[in-house]
Prior knowledge:
Blueprint: H1 41-57, H2 59-67, E1 71-73, H3 93-119, H4 123-144, E2 147-148, E3 163-164, H5 166-183, H6 202-218, H7 225-234, E4 245-248, H8 261-266, E5 271-273, H9 275-283, H10 289-292, E6 293-294, E7 328-329, H11 331-334, E8 339-343, H12 345-357, H13 366-380, H14 386-393, H15 402-416, H16 421-431, H17 460-465
Antiparallel strand pairs: 1-5, 2-3, 4-8, 6-7
Helix pairs in contact: 1-3, 1-4, 2-16, 3-4, 4-5, 4-6, 5-6, 6-7, 6-12, 12-13, 12-15, 13-15, 15-16
Amino acid sequence: MKKYINKLMIVSATFGLMTLGACDDYLDINNDPTQVVDPDPNFTLTSGIIDVAYFHTDAYGLAAGYWVQYITQAGNVAGVTAQDQYQVLPGDNAYQRDFNGLYSGPLQDLVYTSEEGVLREQTNVAAIAEILKAYTFHSLVDMFDRVPYTQANKIDEFPNPVYDDGQDVYDDLILKINDAIAAIDPLSIESITGDVIFGGDMNRWLEFANTLKLKIYLRQTEARASVAQNGVESLDGEAFLATDALMAFDQSNPSNRHPAELADIGTQSFNAASGTIGNYMALMNDPRIDIFFRAPVDPDPVNPHQFITQADGPNVTGPDAGLSYYSARGNYMIGTGSAFPYFTAAESNFLQAEAALRGWITTGTAQEFYEQGIRDSFASAGLSGADTWIANFAPYPTGGTFDDQLEAIMMAKWVALIRQPIEMWNEWKRTGYPDTDVIATSTASLLNPGEFPLRFPPTQTEADLNENTPEVVSLATPVWWDR
C-alpha cells in the first residue's frame, strides 16, 4: 500500500477538503506529497493522536462545554451564542471542518498506521492505531448516533459510504479492541517513536484498551443492561488505567496550541466560566476552582471568582460585564500546561466505582474507587489534601440508596472531567446526573421547553455530497443508548 501523506488527496463525500487547521503545520509531512512516500507508521501515529485531540477540543468540545454548563457567555455581548441557544446549524463551517477533517485526517492516518504497521511487522504500533480508531468511532457514535464506519476510509470502493447504526458499531468496536489486545506484545523490542501519550509503554495501552471497553459497556446500561453487565463482568480482575492518557498541547508552538487558547486567554472572548459549575465548586469549597478557572482581571477582594448564570451574558451590561469581571477558563484547561485527556486516572476510577456499585466488578468497593478518583483529580490539578476535602465536603453516601451513590459518583465526575466536556455530556445524557436542579435548561434555548441537546446533526457538506447521509432530526433526539 502506497501512502502519500497529503490530506487533500483523500477527499471524498465523507472525507472533506478541510483538515483540522490548528495542527496542519505540526508535521511537515502533511503538506507536500513529494516529500514522503510510504512513511514510517510512527509518523502517522503521531499525527493521528494529535488531530483526534484537536477534534475533541475545538468546535464540538466548545458546544459540549456549554451544554454540560462548564462555560457560557460573558456579559456585555451582542446576542446569544448558538451553543447557549441549543442550536447547531448543519452548515456551520467550524463543525463541517472538524467532522470532515476527522475522517480525511486522523482516521485516515490511523488506518494507514494500522495497515502499514502490520505489513512492516510493527504490530504494537498497529495495535495502538486500532485502539485509537475504536476510541474515535465510539466517540462519534455517542455524538451523532449513526456514522460512516464499515465503508469509511475506503474511497475507491465506497465513494458514498453508508451510515452504520450505532449499536452495530459498538458491537464491532469490542471485537476490534479484543483483536488489538491479542496483538500487543509488551516485551517486544519494536521501536515505538510515534506514541506521544505513553512513550511506547504497551502495558499502559493494554490498560487503555480495558478502560475503553469498560466505558463502552457501561454506556449501554440503559439500552442493553444484560450486554453491559456481561461485558463489565468479563473485565473483572483486568488492569485499568491508573495514570492519565494525555495529549499535551504546546503553547510555545503556534500550530500546537489548545484551540481555545488564543480566543479565551489572548483576546478575552465571550466564553466565561459558567455559574452552574463555578457556584457549585465555590459552595463545596473546592480548591480546584483556582486551578480550573482564572480569576477576573479586576477581581473582587472578598470573592475572587465571579461567575455568570448560564445564557445570561447578553443581559449583563455596564461596568460589571465582560471577562474583566467574570472568571474564565485558565491555563490548566486551555493554556500553558493544558492537554486533551483521552482518559484520566480519575475517569478510570469513576468508571470502576460505577461498575462496583452495580456489583459487576469485585476488585474494590465503589467508595474506594470514588475516593481514589477524587484524589487523582486533585493530583492532576497539582493539589494535595483530597482526603480532608472528601471528609468535610464530599463524603461517600455509604448509607444511601443506589441512586444516591450513583449521583455522588457522577457529581464528582462532572467536576473532574472539566477538560473532557464531550465525555461528561455523554455521561450526563446516560445517567441524568447532574440532575436538572443543577443543570437547568438554557433560558435562551430554541428547543421545546424542557428539552436539551442530545446529539449533533450531520453536516451540510455530508448532506450535499453523500446520498446516504441521514435526515437532520431535532437535537433533542436521543442517540441509540440513551433510553
